[in-house]
Amino acid sequence: MNRNDFGFAFLLNLLVPGIGHGFWxxxxxxxxxxxxxxxxxxxxxxxxxxxxxxxxxxxxxxxxALYYIFTFVDLRRVVRKKRSAGRTYQVTAAFxxxxxxWQLLSPAAPVNFLARNAPEVFRLSDNALSPRLRQGSWLxxxxxxxxxxxxxxxxxxxxxxxERGELVRFADxxxxxxxxxxxxxxxxxxxxxxxxxxANGVDFDVSDMFGAPLSGTMALTPVESGSIMVAMIxxxxxxxxxxxxxxxxxxxxxxxx
Length: 257
Known about the structure:
Layout: H1 3-15, H2 19-23, H3 27-47, H4 54-81, H5 89-105, H6 110-116, E1 120-123, E2 138-142, E3 147-148, E4 157-158, E5 167-171, E6 177-184, E7 189-194, E8 196-199, E9 202-205, H7 206-210, E10 216-222, E11 227-234, E12 237-245, E13 249-255
Antiparallel strand pairs: 1-2, 2-13, 3-4, 5-6, 5-13, 6-11, 7-8, 7-10, 8-9, 11-12
Helix pairs in contact: 1-4, 3-4
């Protein structure tokens, strides 16, 4: 076995499952591996949109990873049978170019998927969220916490709602982006008196939710259907609240630096 040939086939399989087998001239099985991998990825994506149980969804999401590991095990079996792939430099380069282009351009490739669902990195321009987050802090908004942009659907699909007390990135009616604290969900009656948030008769401490001293005042307000109630904070006080359409929730906010 030529170690360089095996290492290169391993790299190819890392980029495109099945192409490593093709490099070692196992063309039919390479195509089979590739097609099964595509099918398992599509099933994993569909599981986020269909009403499956948590166990079924976890299985379908984990299936591509398990199959991906299997492709490397089988590739090892293939290369043990042969002394060398016997490829010229030109053919080797062609395989590598194809694999890289697949990752960058194919809608079903992981790199392409991550590029479409990349987190938004931004910097706080003021001290409104102090003392929890200070001016100049680097944050990122993870859209995959709540929704995903799939290649086979024209609009991002929501598959989870934020938890109460999470910081989220959202867009207002003018398209301006903000960071706010989730305090209410569709159909709830929400009220704030001092540090106490009451939602449908259940009390919550907003300071505990925010992770820093926080208080405010808001009369009993119903949360509209299809909306999340988000509080805008300014240095320990709830300054305003907004009814934000779930489609305008852009992601969960985390501190980067």
